Amino acid sequence: MDALASIDWGVMFRPEYRVMLLQGIRNTLALTAGAIVGGLLLGMVVAFGRLASSRWIRLPATAYVELVRTIPLLVHVMFWYFAVPEMLPDDVKRVLYRHDVGFYTSLVALILYAAAFISEDIRSGIRGIAPGQAEAAHSLGFGFFDTFRLVILPQALRTTVPPLLGQAMNITKNTTVALMVGVGELAFVTRAVNDASFLSVGVYAFTTVFFLLIAIVLTALGQWYQRRYPAR
Amino acid sequence: MWEILETYWVQLLIGYYPDGPLGGLAMTLILASVGLVLALPAGLTVCLGLISPWRPLARAVELFVFYMRSVPLIVHLLWIYFLLPLVIKGAPLWLVVLVVITLFNGAYMSQTIRAGIEALPKGQYEAARSLGLSHGRALRHVILPQALRNMLPSIVSQFVLLIKETALGSVIGLHEMTLEFMGLNDTLGDKAIPIFTLLGIAYFALCYPLTLLGRYVERRFAAPARSARATTAEASAGQA
Amino acid sequence: MSEKPKSIEFQDVSKRFGDNPVLKNISIDFHQGDVVVICGPSGSGKSTLLRTITRLETIDSGRILIEGREPGHSAQDVNAMRQRVGFVFQSFNLFPHLSVMDNICLAPRQLLKLSDTEARERAMALLTRVGLASKADASPSQLSGGQQQRVAIARTLAMQPPIILFDEPTSALDPEMVGEVLAVIRQLAGEGMTMLCVTHEMGFAREVADRIVFMADGEIIEDASPEQFFTATRSARARAFLAEVRHA
Questions:
Q1: How far apart are CA B238 and CA A84, in angstroms?
Q2: Binary contact (B133, C54; C-beta < 8 A)
Q3: For residue A197, what pLDDT is reported?
Q4: ipTM exceeding the 0.90 mark
Q5: Assigned architecture for domain B2-237
Q6: Is the pLDDT of residue B208 over 80?
Q7: Residue A34 CB contacts under 8 Å (≥ 6 apart), including other chains
Q8: How many angstroms separate the CA of residue C215 from the nearest CA in chain B?
Q9: Which residues of chain C have pLDDT under 70?
């Protein structure tokens, strides 16, 4: 078909577009890395919060998780991009807008969203450990923190790593949502580069291949981990 | 917030219908519901392919599922947004979104369905056949009722995911609930806080009761197939 | 005893799982009304023997006749045969989505076309016999292992089969529940059905069986009356087995 012939497959190699695409990849990776690190840290804090004995810690943590998980990520991103800056005092707002607002608000939204799910995975991992383990540790004379550090956490991590790899994949895919606020990561750039409708195919394909490669790498990582540390 | 709701509730509920396309909450719900209804048979079909004894078919279907799961939903939307009009002239936006969510959720549900069937103990089928029941009757009275009950919580949680997925339709300009609120934000200028808070509340009000329903259903039909359901439902849980 | 018609006949039956021969040229007859206990060490093929009768496992060679004929291989023939040969499983296999009453009534309603009332009457009578009349509306998950197995037996009896097979009916039960299930089986033994029971409960075997068949390595080593088997054991293999069981 003529349509196929007129597709410009080399679009990504043209200099003017190359810069934009590379920028897109850079932003995607930066958002992903930031969200994974932030999500893990916050996720761990929230997971412990949900396991706390005090109701004053447990309930807010639970409320956070339930709230964040039932609202689409896109809405989170828009809330942080449009609504939150309005709540800040003027001088903070000015500083914020001088930098890349879209990037930072998206990062915050991504971290909060990811942390909610990661905390759930960590929490199941910890709860999945038989209570007998803690009892045995206590009987040997270990206190709470030592028990946790030496007995519970290592086991919990074994079971939690596969779902965490899954969350890493989700985070990577979720960065595409930041497109809506024009961060200039990959999918946005995909649309920006697209002038004529056929021009876009080459760029869509590029984006698709990018994510497929990431998925393949993460899947391979997951399988390697399962083989090395099989779940008993 | 209340004034906005009072003034604009019609638009937020149903868009510009009948003067324009159907939109708002109505579009979100209808799209999610139809998507669920279509995704189930889609998932069943894909599942049959996955468990097919013919290796080439099973492999091909596995690759399809891997592709659907690895590529972000927005990219799927962009592809179908571009490709569907080539096949169906003048394909409306809601159709693009419907096709995408059917394929996307069908791929995920195929794993759930497969897990549900495989999780049943082999002895159930044997016991049914040993009473003299035919294969068909054994399926109808013993196997399928149990498999479907085991999957019910997953179906409910899949519906919640579908509702959240419809929000991405706004990326290609579909008039669902999120786009309506965004339009409102453009119109009203400085009312971003109440608008987006309201939007968040709307989704929460929609999805949280369903989440609770799913948990209730899971408790009520507490099946031994826990591990199977956990892996598939939670795998898709962290997405936008 | 040989004037009674034959219920089940094995004619030179062999079967292997992969490279592993599990039944080796088995030939044995069971007569109507016989109460037979089949015992032996694990891996002897005794469960497989039972399962080949109702075609839960296929055989590689030989024939198995039921009530004088070899059942056809069509689905209808197999289903018809299974209505006449009841099977009680080690893991009970009650249907968890149905109440106790519905578990028992399912097959009579569907296959024997009994009306609702007739099916329920039959079910209640059976539940009373096994001592569980009060549990008619309970769900299987609410019952203990021993109770579930008794319901499973009632479910099998609801089809009124002339032949009934028990595959290690008490092996999955806690020790204190074994007695209640054996009591039910003991009761059935006096009623004229042909019963084949694979079990490790040798005390029960001694009391109830007309005949004891000892298997090892896929072959029938001994086939004798209880007194003969326990007091005048012929083979060394059987003697070793009995010695171990007594110590266990």
A1: 23
A2: no
A3: 44
A4: no
A5: Orthogonal Bundle (1.10)
A6: yes
A7: A107, A110, A111
A8: 24
A9: 1-2, 247-248
